[in-house]
Amino acid sequence: MKNRLSRIIKPKDGRTVMLAVDHGYFMGPTTGLEKLDEIVKPLIPYADTLMLTRGALRNYIDPTTDIPIVLRVSGGTSIIGKELLHEGIVASIEDAIRLNVSGIAFSILVGADFERDTILGLTQCIDEAERYGIPVLAVTAVGKDMAKDARYLSLASRMAAELGAHMVKTYFCKDFEKVIETCPVPIVIAGGKKQPEKDALQMAYDALQAGAVGVDMGRNIFQSSNPVGMIKAVRAIVHESATPKEALEIFNSTKQ
Ligand code: R5P
Questions:
Q1: Global pTM value
Q2: Is residue 132 included in any domain, yes or no?
Q3: Which end of the chain is more exposed for a tag (fewer CB within 10 A), N or C?
Q4: From residue 162, how far is each of 30, 133, 158, 234, 255 by CA, in Å?
C-alpha cells in the first residue's frame, strides 16, 4: 500500500500532479480528448500519475509507458442520463491488478437520493483493494444543483476518509483550509471546467497553500491552448512552489 501510494504522491515532497483524462466514462469524446493518445503523449513526462479508464488505458496508452496509473472504476450513468453520477463498480479488482495500477478511483455523490448506492460501492471497492494493498481515491462528485462550498465538501471528504478512502479528490472552494483540516487523508483538487490559465494556476496555488497535496487536473490542461505549457506551469506550482505569476511565465514561454 505504502509503495503504491508513494508512486502516486511523491515521497520527495509529498506532492503530486495527477493528469485526469478519465472523462470519457460518462462524457464520451470530451473536447480535447477526441484523440486521447495524441494529446496525452507529450504531457506524460510532466505528470506524476495518469488517471483514466481501463478502456482508455488499453486503447490509447502504450503499455511500455512509464507512468503510475490511477484507474477509474466507477461509472454507470452518462451526462445525458436522468441520474448523473449514480455510479457503481465498473471494473473488477482483478482487472485493476492485471493492468498493474497504483490506485483506483471511485466517485461518491453525497446528498443525492442515491448517495447510499455510491457510498456502498466505494466501501466495497475499498474492501477489495485493501486485500491487495491498492489505495483508493474517493472522488467527491458534486451534482448540478449542489453547492461547492466548504461545508459540503468537508462533509463529503471526511465521510470518504472515515469510510476508508486513502486519498480524496475534491473541488477547491472558499475556506478550503476547513476541508483540509477536517480530512485525515491527503487531498487533491480537481480542476473543474476550463477557465483562463491565469485563474486555474491561481486556484492550484491557493489549494496547495491551504494544504492540498496536489492536483488531479484534466480540462484546464488538455483544453488549454497550450497543454504542455499548462502542465509545466502546474507542475512548477506543485513541486517547485512557484507563484502563480512565475507559473504563468512558464506557460507563456513554453512553445506549443
Ligand atoms: C470527473 O469526475 C473526472 O473524474 C475528472 O477526472 C475530474 O473531474 C478531474 O478533471 P477536471 O480537472 O477536468 O475536472
A1: 0.96
A2: yes
A3: C
A4: 33, 18, 6, 30, 45
